[in-house]
From TrEMBL, chain A:
Annotated keywords: Cell inner membrane, Cell membrane, Cytochrome c-type biogenesis, Membrane, Transmembrane, Transmembrane helix, Transport
Transmembrane domains' residue ranges: 28-48, 68-88, 100-119, 131-150, 162-185, 205-226
Location relative to the cell: Cell inner membrane; Membrane
Descriptive protein name: Heme exporter protein C
Keyword Transmembrane: yes
Gene that produces this protein: ccmC
Function text: Required for the export of heme to the periplasm for the biogenesis of c-type cytochromes.
Keyword Transport applies: yes
Membrane topology: Multi-pass membrane protein
Domain Cytochrome c assembly protein: 28-188
Pfam families xref list: Cytochrom_C_asm
Native source organism of the sequence: Luteibacter jiangsuensis
TrEMBL record, chain B:
Location in the cell: Cell membrane; Membrane
Chief location: membrane
Name of this protein: Cytochrome c-type biogenesis protein CcmE
Job of this protein: Heme chaperone required for the biogenesis of c-type cytochromes. Transiently binds heme delivered by CcmC and transfers the heme to apo-cytochromes in a process facilitated by CcmF and CcmH.
Presence of keyword Heme: yes
Region (Disordered), start-end ranges: 132-155
Amino acids binding heme: 123, 127
Cytoplasmic topological segments: 1-8
Length: 254, 155
């Protein structure tokens, strides 16, 4: 690997090192995610005031919007990992990409369900084929396609390589989801929270939303690391470090 | 970077570029006829004549909502900045349906009137407490009065 890559990052590419690192980080990430989600739900459901237009029904935003952000963020992370895995054939990158897909699919599913529950009372319909809703549904199908393709090969690495190409091709959908509300006339409204410029939401409603965003990010890390550890144990089953690990465990138990 | 990786990088990048170009062309081609709705002025220009049913989007004109006394029939006028279209609908309306609300109605044209089979309410991306909204509306009104006062010639 090139000289500019720091040594610790290089070392993290080794399965046993990543396994131990993920094991150390996971409980902290999960614990912090639960605490932050609790704070965000309390802030969103009890502290934040009702909306002038939608009343209390808007409170589903604290689940819907962070899930929608995660559905796109995880796709981005998965695409970067798939790219690194395809070009440099780093095993950890392939595993990270493939194990991100189920988490991303789950967030996409939550986004679609909460959006549907929100749409019925406010818009008057559970579902409509507007550009934002349709492109988010396509995102779910791409996630499911990646999961399916990965598991349809006998050899895991071969499956990861094929599915990584699907991930990169499917990445064109991510900007379409994001900009759909600007490019076309849609029933779905535009973005409320903006990175550039002022957000269209009052501060008392914004902070629970951002707290929930941090919680979902940490949950992704915790969930991903657990999945990667399980995947590594399965795919490296014959290697020395896994045997040592399992032997050590047995020794502890005895 | 060694030659194998360079070759892989070239393959991966070309696949991604090909996908982006293909989807870009599709989106560009669909841009004109992928509109979810037509505005009243677009309908009056005749842009929607080729569709037996289509969606009409715009604002409910303030004071135009008329409800029948003995049925769920309701009629109102949908406007945009340049056109207006009378709409008839029979059924239950969403909670947000009211004067000056953006709505999207699905239906067909019948002798100059739009007969809707479904009416959806569209809301904007702003979220704020009611007190703040009221305060803003009040400030807005006060400013209007101030503007008026400014324009009046001082005695």
């Amino acid at each position: 690997m090139a000289n500019w890559v720091p040594l610790w990052l290089h070392r993290l590419g080794s399965p046993p090192v990543f396994y131990r690192f993920a094991g150390a980080v996971r409980p902290w990430a999960l614990g912090l995610a639960i605490v932050l989600a609790g704070v965000a739900l309390y802030g969103g459901l009890f502290v934040a005031p009702a909306d002038y237009q939608q009343g209390d029904a808007y409170r589903i935003i604290f689940l819907h919007v962070p899930s929608a952000w995660m559905s796109l963020f995880i796709y981005g992370a998965m695409a970067v990992a798939a790219f690194v895995g395809l070009v440099w054939r780093i095993k950890i990158a392939e595993v990270v990409a493939m194990e991100s897909a189920p988490v991303g699919a789950a967030f996409t599913f939550i986004t679609l369900v909460t959006g549907s529950l929100w749409g019925k009372p406010m818009w008057g319909t559970w579902w409509t084929w507007d550009a934002r809703l349709t492109s988010e549904l396509v995102l779910l199908f791409i996630y499911l396609g990646v999961i399916g393709l990965y598991h349809s090969f006998e050899d895991r690495r071969q499956g990861a390589r094929a599915a990584s190409f699907l991930v990169l091709v499917g990445a064109v959908n991510v900007p379409i989801v994001h900009f759909s509300v600007n490019w076309w006339n849609t029933l779905h409204q535009g973005s409320t929270v903006r990175l550039l410029g002022p957000s269209h939401i009052e501060t008392s409603m914004l902070w629970p939303l951002l707290t929930m965003m941090a919680a979902t990010k940490l949950y992704y890390v915790a969930s991903l690391f657990a999945r990667v550890r399980a995947d590594l144990i399965a795919s490296e089953g014959g290697k020395g470090w896994v045997r040592e690990l399992l032997a050590g465990r047995d020794g502890d138990a005895a | 970077m060694n030659p194998t990786r360079k070759r892989r990088l070239a393959i991966v990048v070309s696949v991604v570029v090909a996908a982006v170009v293909a989807v870009g062309l599709i989106v560009f081609a669909l841009q004109r006829n992928m509109n979810y709705l037509f505005t009243p002025s677009q309908v009056q220009e005749g842009q929607a004549t080729q569709y037996p049913t289509f969606r009409l989007g715009g604002m409910v004109k303030a004071g135009s909502i008329q409800r029948a006394a003995d049925s769920l029939k309701v009629s109102f006028i949908v406007v945009d900045d340049a056109g207006a279209m009378p709409v008839e609908y029979t059924g239950i309306l969403p909670d947000l349906f009211r004067d000056n609300q953006s709505v999207i109605a699905t239906g067909r044209m019948d002798s100059g009137r739009f007969i809707a089979s479904e009416v959806l309410a569209k809301h904007d991306e702003n979220y704020m407490p009611k007190e703040l909204k009221d305060a803003m509306a009040k400030a807005h009104e006060n400013r209007k009065i101030d503007d008026k006062a400014m324009k009046d010639p001082q005695p």
